[in-house]
Amino acid sequence: MSKLQRHLNLVGENNADEATFRSFLFAEIMRLAPKTKGQIEWDRYDLLLLCGKDKALVEIKFYMPGRNMDVDGSQGNWKGGASLQNEQEFCECVNKLRKPQDHISHKFLILVYETKSKRASKHSFSKSYDDLTKFGLSDVQTIDHSFTSGAVCKLIRIS
After folding, report:
1. Residue 157 — left, alpha, or beta (φ > 0 → left; ψ -120 to 50 → alpha)?
2. Strand, helix or coil at 97?
3. Is beta strand 54-63 parallel, antiparallel or unpaired with respect to 106-114?
4. Beta carbons within 8 Å of 98's beta carbon, 6+ residues apart
């Protein structure tokens, strides 16, 4: 994911979004496991991976809000942010992955969220996602990353 960090250094962290993250993640998977095949946006899932007899579905939730830019280059309104709606969408995503899928051997959810918001709010991504047991999720690994400071990346196995 060091290429993602170089990309963000070039375009700015505020221009990072889920599609960018997904593309760089897929490229990194292909670099580390070159015999793997896959497809982005497969049958309403973010990613399908085929590695030998193993088949995996991957969903990504990317919560890194930023600021819009005004026409004069100054900071504009906030885009995104922690909310109860995010939690509802997260639950819907988990439930979608929990549904049986023929021929799929693994299901993962990758969760990326900011931990230090510059925006004042009664909600925060840390409050929502630091402890995932409230969503019935226990097979969770925090991933070391270097793509942006003030963010957490978690790999969640869905069974």
Report:
1. beta
2. helix
3. parallel
4. 107, 158, 159
Position 152, amino acid: V
Give just the sign of the alpha carbon dihedral 14, 19, 21, 24. Answer: negative
Please, what is the end-to-end C-alpha distance for the chain in angstroms?
A: 26
Q: What percent of the chain has pLDDT over 70?
A: 87
Dist. CA 29–CA 38, nearest whole Å:
10
The pLDDT tens digits for 108-150 are 999 999 887 676 678 889 999 999 999 999 999 998 876 667 7
3-state class of 132 per DSSP?
A: helix
Query: In the chain, what are the domain boundaries?
Result: 2-157
Structure tokens of 149?
A: 């400071």
CA 2 – CA 107 distance, rounded (Å): 25
- Inter-residue contact 151 to 113 (CB < 8 Å): yes
140 CB-contact burial (10 Å; exposed 0-12 / middle 13-18 / buried 19+): middle
